[in-house]
Prior knowledge:
The chain has 94 residues and is an all-alpha fold. It has one domain. It contains three helices and no strands. The protein has helices at residues 15-41, 46-67, 75-93. It starts with 14 loop residues before the first helix and ends with a helix. The mean pLDDT is 84.
Amino acid sequence: MEQENKQQVVIPADKAKIRHIWTVTLYLFLITAAEFVIAFNLDASIIKTIIFIVMTIVKAYYIMSEFMHLGHETKGLKLSILLPLIFVVWLIGA
């Protein structure tokens, strides 16, 4: 019986993509750290709530855009996700 000699070709890692992922992870870490600082240093107020909502939306954008790969999709798919989200936020505000 003849043995097959299979060789596996390893493609070099794309360093630009890896650097971009680490940059996004750093942004998420910094936003989370800022949230902790604000949570423990500011008294409860409407401004604190608004800051948390904005920071959460920014973090959600980065997570969906980079780690769920929606940042590179077509405009129609982005709008199909964004418009219902805006409607839900409007309902919560109402």
